[in-house]
Design brief:
Blueprint (H helix, E strand, L loop, with lengths): L1 H10 L16 H5 L7 E5 L26 E12 L2 E7 L12 E8 L8 E8 L10 E7 L5 H8 L5 E9 L10 E7 L3 H12 L7 E8 L8 H10 L3 E7 L9 E2 L4 H7 L7 E6 L2 H7 L14 H5 L7 E3 L1
Parallel strand pairs: 8-9, 8-12, 9-10, 10-11, 12-13
Antiparallel strand pairs: 1-5, 2-3, 2-7, 3-6, 4-5, 4-7
Catalytic activity: 2 Fe(III)-[cytochrome b5] + NADH = 2 Fe(II)-[cytochrome b5] + NAD(+) + H(+)
Subcellular location: Mitochondrion
Keywords: FAD, Flavoprotein, Membrane, Mitochondrion, NAD, Oxidoreductase, Transmembrane, Transmembrane helix
Length: about 325
């Protein structure tokens, strides 16, 4: 346990306000493309928990995730990362692999009391793990706790040993090493999670020479998630550049101030090119301002916002 805390601290998860607690273990397409929206509700008649299926072929490694069934994962540990964000570690058989590709997300759910017709109503929400997809026996979710967020409030109420049902993975962008010479990223708030998944994949692969430029927007310096880890990565990897901007800067803040502007994008991102790709993830206001949100069917939709004004085309931008 002490080793786990030291490792997280060194990787920069942040200053924890308390120690980790420890105990031992619809139409998906409509939900899958959502990185940071509201909770969604669907009806299911059978709320029974589905446990991990065994793979009969011994030549194949067992996979913890299942894209077609809800699988129960036990909360192993939790910690407060910032004033409104918590880190949750879920465990699974360490002899299995998680089965998560870069970049993919998971879908979580929990049941509400049956309605007047006896049907079970579920809150369903996608999250992107921030742990290494190759990690043995666990995956980590970084979740912002919203006062009115049904799913995030449910996560906040969990205790070690509690079970959360998960389905997935749901593939978003299939990242392959060196697929582009330069990847630009614009993230807001918890929209950093898919970016971190890709950043980690690039930086841990010595054969991947991709340059990364991240613009990360938040309300205040205290809202910047995993800043210590991001700063350590940028300091130790010359191919990673990060620019922070906040709406409410503190007196000693030296980064950007206010919403992301065209000037910030020009200075902080690779220019429009077939050799570059811009990734965007954040709340609706940021999405509309930067690139336009996804279409109603959750496809990429039309490119608008400042990226279009700067000359980027739809094939140069991916919206999480």
């Amino acid at each position: 346990m002490a080793t786990f805390i030291r490792r997280l601290t060194k990787s920069g998860v942040g200053a924890f306000s308390h120690k980790f607690q420890t105990q031992s273990r619809a139409p998906i397409g409509a939900i899958a493309a959502i990185c940071g929206g509201l909770s969604y509700f669907y009806y299911f008649d059978s709320p029974n928990l589905v446990h991990m299926d065994k793979i009969n072929d011994e030549s194949r490694q067992q996979v913890a995730l299942n894209p077609d069934k809800w699988v129960g994962f036990k909360l192993q540990e939790k910690a407060k990362v910032s004033h409104n964000t918590q880190l949750f570690r879920f465990s699974f058989d360490p002899s299995a692999k998680l089965g998560l590709d870069v970049a993919s997300c998971l879908i979580t759910r929990y049941p509400l009391p049956p309605d007047t017709e006896g049907k079970t109503k579920y809150v369903i929400r996608p999250y992107t793990p921030i742990s290494d997809p190759d990690a043995k026996g666990h995956f980590d979710l970084l979740i912002k706790i919203y006062p009115g967020g049904k799913m995030s409030q449910h996560f906040a109420s969990l205790k070690p040993g509690d079970i959360v049902e998960v389905k997935g993975p749901v593939e978003k962008l299939r990242y392959t090493p060196n697929m582009k010479k330069h990847i630009g990223m614009i993230a807001g708030g918890s929209g950093i999670t898919p970016m971190l998944q890709i950043i980690d994949a690039i930086l841990k692969n010595p054969e991947d020479k991709t340059k990364i430029s991240l613009i990360y927007a938040n309300v205040s310096p205290d809202d910047i998630l995993l800043k210590k880890k991001l700063d350590v990565l940028a300091d130790s990897h010359p191919n990673l550049k990060i620019y922070y901007t906040v709406d409410k800067p503190s007196e000693n803040w030296t980064g950007g101030k206010g919403y992301i502007t065209k000037d910030m994008a020009v200075k902080g991102l690779p220019g429009p090119s077939e050799d570059s790709l811009i990734l965007v993830c954040g709340p609706p206001g940021l999405m509309n301002h930067i690139s336009g949100d996804k279409a109603k069917d959750r496809s990429q939709g039309e490119l608008t916002g400042i990226l279009k004004e700067l000359g980027y085309t739809e094939n140069m931008v991916y919206k999480f």
